[in-house]
Each structure stands twice: as C-alpha cells, then as structure tokens.
Amino acid sequence: MESLADTAPLIERSALVKDLVRCLRDDTRSGAIVVGGAGTGKTAVVKAAIRELGTGSHLIRLTATPALAAVPFGALAPYLSRLPDRELDSYAAVVEAMADSLKAEADRPLFVVDDAHCLDHGTVRQLAQAAATGAAGILATCRPGPLIPEEFLSLWDDGIIAKFDLAPLSRTGTHQLCEQVLRADVSPWVSALFHDAADGNPLMLMSLIQHARSTGALGCRHGVWFLLANPDMALVPAADVVDRQLRSMTPEEKTAATIVALAGPLSLAQILRISGPKAVDALDTAGIIAVSAGHDRLVRPASPIVGEIIRHRVPAGRSSALRSSVLSLPSGRAAVPGAALNRLRWSLDCGVEIPPAQLLHAAVAANTALDPATAARAAGAIRDARFLSEARIQLAYSHFIAGRPQAAMACLESAQPVRAGQPSYLAALLAVRLGSTTPARESLSSAHPPGRAPENNPWGGTAAGGLAAELLNRTWDGRFMAVGTGLRELVETAGIPPEIRVPAASLLAELLTAQGRLRTGLRLDGEAWAGARSGSLGLPLVFEDLVVRHCLNLIRAGDWDGLGKVLDDYADREPGRLLYSGGMLHLMRGYSRLRQGRMRECLAEVRLGVEELTIADPLNLLPFAHAVAAYAAAAVGRHYEASQHCLDFRLSDYREPKTLRLLAEAYCRAAEPGTVTDSAGPAGAGPEGAGPEGPGVSALSRLADEAMHEGLRGVETDIRRLAFRSGDISGAEALAMSSRAVDGPEARLLESYALAVSASDAADLIGISDDALGGGHGLLALEAAQQAERILADDPDRWRLTAVQRRVHHRLVEAGMSAQLEVVHSDHGAALSGREAEVLDLVSRGSTNAEIATALCLSHRTVEGHLSRIFAKLGVGRRADLLDHGALDQGTLDHSALDHGTLAPES
Q1: What is the dihedral of CA 379, 382, 386, 388, to 10 degrees?
Q2: Distance between CA atoms of 693 and 678, rounded to whole angstroms?
Q3: How far apart are CA 124 and CA 111, in angstroms?
Q4: Which pTM value belongs to this model?
C-alpha cells in the first residue's frame, strides 16, 4: 500500500519539501533525514525533493528491508560488486572499497535510502562516515524514536545533516486531501470524521476515502461528497500496513496492542500490569498506540482506524482469553469516556452474558452519543422481561436516529405499557418527535398538579408528565402563553431532575426571545447552556436540542462570535456525531449568515445543511432549512432554486423550531415570485390609505398579525421586516410598533429606521445606517443605506446620491457581500396606491404640500413621504414632471369612466 503514499498529494508538505531541497543544495551540509510514522508520506516527500533537484544530481539508491537488516552491508551489496566475496566479511576491506569508489565518482554522490531503520549496522556506519567526511551525502527516511540509527542522530547533533519531522495532517489539510482525491467539493463533516478516524495519517486517509467511496458510504449529491453511512474501517486497503507491523512484533507487544484495541482507553498503570515498559514504548514509537500526556496517562489506539483493524483480526478464542485477563485488572480511578462502550462491544463479540441493567445503560449511552448501531446491539441483547419495555424504547431511539421512523414507531408501540418516571419521559420525548399519539404520550398526564413533584421521587409521573404532556405537544400554535406559564412553573419547582429542568429552561428561553424579551431569555438561556452537559445525560438527542436553541438565542442577540465558538466546539469535540448532527450545524451557521445579510454565504452553507438533513434529520429541521434556503436563493437571484425549496417546504411536515414556524412560512412567501414587486400602500397613511396589495405581501402581513396575536413580537418584527425589504413600506408604523415591543439595541434602531422610511427622511436613515454599523448590525446598516439611496434616487443634488451609493457599497463590502446585492427592493415601476393617486392628482392641480395635507387630513411630513414614493415609482426627479403624469392619469380615468357610462363629459 506504500504506492498510495507515493501518489498522495503533498498537502501541507510543500514548505518542508522546499526546505529539504535547500538543505540538499547547501554545500555545508551532507544531507538530511526525514522522520515520520508509517503512512505519513516520507517517501512522497523524498521523491518530490529529488524531482526538484533535477537530473544533474548523482543519486545512489540503496534498498533497506527487514530481511537485509540481518545481512552485513546488505544494502550496500550492489555498490560493492567488485569486492571479492572473501573480503565482504572484512570491515577494513569494505571501508577501503567504499572510499575508492567514492573517490572515483566525478561528482559527490547522494545516497537515497528509504526506511533507514531497516539498515544493518555496518551500512549505517559506512554511510555516516561518508557523510561526516563529505565524501557523499545521504537522504534517508526513517521511523521516529529509537528506530533512528544513532550514527545519524550524531550527525544531526553535529549539524552535518538536517532532520525533518513529518506531523499528521491538520483538519484543514485533511479536507484538502479529500477534495483532491475525490476531485469535487466535500462536506466538511466528511473530512472531520475521516481526520478523527485516521488521526491525520495521509496513507490511512487515502485508503479510507477509497474504501468509503467503493462501498457506497460516500455519495456525491449535487456535486458535493457526503457521508451516507459509517464505513467499516477494519476493511480499508491500508490494513495490510498494520498487519505487517503486527507480524513483526514480539508476543508481549501484540498482547498489549490487542488489549488496548479491544478495551481501551486504559490507564497506563493497567497496561503496565500486562506488559512491560519496553513493549509500551515500542508500540508508541511504531504508531500503534498513543499515550496521553498529563497526570492520567491514558493509553488508546493511535487512531480509531488502527484500533478497528486490530480488533477485527483477533480470533474469537484469543479474544475471550484476553478478556479474562482484562477483567482481573484493578478499575481505574474514574470512568474513561468511550471505554465502557468499547468493552461492551467486546463482551458481545465474545458471547458473554451481560446483566440487563448494564446493557440498558449502554444502550442509553450509545443513543446519547448518536451511535445507533451500538445502541441497537445492546438493547437487542436484553431478554429479561423486567427490562424489555425500556429496551424497546432505546431500540426505538436507535431506529429513529438512523432514519427509520416506521421501525421506531413500531418499537415504541411495542414498549407499552411504559413504567412511570424516566422511561415514560423518554418515550414521550420520542413520541413527540415521531408525531405519535401513542399511549406513551397520552399516559404522561399526571394526577398531580403541574409543577409539583412527588416526595422522594423527582422522576415520578408529575415532572415527566408535566413537561411531556403539557409542553412537548406536536405543535404549540396558539398556546405560547400557556406553554410559557407551564415551563416557568417547571423551571422554578424544587426537586426537578436536571434532565427535565435544563431542557425546560432552554425551551422557555427560546420562547422568551421569540416574544422579544431578549434580556430575560438570554439570561435563562445562559443558565440552561451551563447545565447542558449534565442535563443531557441519559437523554438521546436532547443535547442537540439544547445546541439548536442556544444557537437560535445567540442569533437573535446578534452574538456572532459566541455562535461560531459553540458550533466550532461541537464539531471539534463531537466528530463521531456529525453523521447525524452535521446538518444542524450547517443550518445554524447559514441562518446566522442570513440574519447578517450575507446571502451568498448563507445559501452555500444551507445547501450543505439541506443535503445533510436529507441524509439524517433526527431533529426535524429540514423544513426550516428549506425555508431559509428559499429566501437566500431568491435574494441572490436564483429563483428556480428558491421555488424548489419553497415546494419542498410546502410538502413537508414542519415541527422545529416551534417558535419559528411562522417565520419559516414568511421566508417562503417572501421568496415566491411576485412578492418583491407587489405594490404597497402608503407609509404612515393608516387604514384609510391602504392600497391594493399583492398576494405575497398580503400573506406576510397576515403572518405578522398571527405572530402578534400569539405574543411572538420578536417573530412578528422579523416578518414585518421581511415585508419591508420586499417593498411593502406601508407597514412602517406596524414595524415600528412591533420593534418597540422587543428588547435590545437593534430593536431601537429598527424602530427609528421604520419611522425614518415612513417620513422619507434620507438624512435620518444615513445616521441610522452609521449607528447600526457601529453596533455590529450590518444588515440593518445596509437596509438603511439602501432606503436612503432609494429616496435620493431623483434628488436634484446628485452628490448626495453619490455619497449614499458609496456608503451602500462600503456596507456590502464590510458585510462580505456582493456589491450588487439588493436587500431593499425599489418601488420603480410599481403601481400607485389609492392615496398616492390622490396626492398626485392634487399636485397636478397645482396644490402645495400644505394644501394637500389640509385637504387629505395628513401631516406635512406624511405628504412628503408620499411624494418621495411617487417620484420613485414614476421615475421622475422634479415636481414639475408630476404635472404631465397627473394629467395623463386623469385622462385615463376620464376615458374609463366614459366607457362605463359613469361620468358625463363636460359641455
């Protein structure tokens, strides 16, 4: 398999190759040694350096193998062909022959040796002497640690040769390697999972990519490679590299490596009871195991893929015998993450009878870790009737996580009746996700009043029933106030387990921020997030729920740095979960981009999220992802893509996030063709001035009203802002009122923004844009600048328009957006509303602004706002230009009335 490493792209090795070539061309040096573990690309680096040196170099290639290591001067045999056989055993004769040969060379030769750790001692000494005297140079690769020949280390210490150490690839390097091998874009979670599995080893990565692609675990969707299933790492082609290493080990080393693979992570103290320090050091040096630094000193396989390869090759009989020896080891001081599930799999492989309580605990832990295969195996092994109901609940979770809802429903129904307490709570949570009306969900109504836990039993039916039956219904529509009251009682009740309290606090925080109560919601969200780790213990998918709600609250607060840290930490710490939760991370990051106005970035991110959620969506987030993608696609002019996402949204069953259902519907409405160009009524005119509205804008208005009636003032504000961007500035007063009901500095700026647009006050909008940008509200800064540009489009003072256009451009660039993106749509070409037609008629008759205000019972500022919009819609820049338009409109009206016999011609 070394050929894979030879052809591997030199990702993150280019600088090292340049330094290596520079060293080889340095007359003051006699070469270099490249050090790295198996599969790190040593040979590829050396070959690249030789190519850079060109054809003028005099190379002498020596072969080093374990077989030749036992032959004196075995690697030099081709170079000593003229030496009589009888003198090959004479060290002096070999030295003399080498010296003579080197003197005969016209140019100083460069000995190239791959796997110098396999050289015999005599050859090492000869090469070291040639390098020390300057008679020849050496370019060698070698495994790290004590395998490096001491003579070479001495040369390095003396500065005669250089030493270059190859580190594993970073996660970024792994992603680049995946894209180069697959020749297409790759989901970042593919490279994250593969990096963790191979620990950045290029050879193992290349092999894993090939294996996953050939077995269908990797699939290409719309030009991007995604992970469709976890690949069987034990069967990768590069397994033969590990096999060769195992065959060369001593029995003691093999035993230690096998036990670490089967039962690890283990403490160093436990391993040292099985094998000696030398064996552990040898395994560590060979890259078979890794010993952590620090006080705990945990020993684990060097990478998950190495562990799976070794585990797969252990015969059943030997596995059982080794298990007995491991059971005799004293327990560690603390539980090591991952060790319990590893040992459970080992026990099941050995056919050992495991207590049902231990199996059930393992199934819960595996489902919580989003490892449905292990969870199903543990739950399926339970035969004790006392545990069957809970085992079927966990089996149902494993099916649901793996994307088999029908099987999950069947398992959940077969679990009835469910024991009160934590089992019934878990069953209710899953029933809600499934949209089920099973008895598991209905039986949670407790005889106790909500908020009171039975004495000495916090897991009694009250707490679980109160949360599941009252608060986790399939829909909260129209019940947000009651839900909030129930959640608050639950959070404030003493004695409620954190597994209930923390999710309840998180739900309440999401509801409060959706209602516009940001300060209270964010404070409660901080408390819930602090307890998220403890609160998610034993509750599959609940930690992911907490991540989503925490991200939504950070997005509402505009805390983009905090959001990025949460998403990055999850991806770094939980790479094994990404097959089932990666879509969630893409969606949250993409939604944050939308809220910042970075529409192209949003669309790119949410496209990945939609594909990931199509593969695995245990949190039911796909409909919301379609809605966000639809709006972003429409914003950047990809209307066909937007319509497809709208259709997918309409065909889906929306469930999460509950508080954003109306906003998701609004995103789709705003993305539909015709919404942007719909005519809007006059700003600030009130009901008497409302003009005809298009269906898209009318729908947005209805959705905003519905959000207001449900008390979701934050959501209402978001929807009215969408309508505003679509050209419906008739809702300026409603936007100002809803913003007034929302906490936070952005809401205050938004209120001022709506009032300034209503009054067509360009100067005020420019100031608001500056304030918004200073406060980190880039999208609002852009909207205000573009509204000012719209108002000044026909201003006689062109310099004002130019200055604002420059501001708009800077806002776009600062936001990382295309300079052509238009988030506020122009009224040019739109039909006049009824009130605007009245104002135009009075202007055409020569009325002044004051006279128009008196005639129509409007304020002077409102009349100016109507005139500004009339200028924009008719594409004129002077009041005099309105006279012709007014006469034309009046003529049209007169002819229409004559045709219908409703207006008599003047005599």
Answers
A1: 50
A2: 6
A3: 11
A4: 0.80
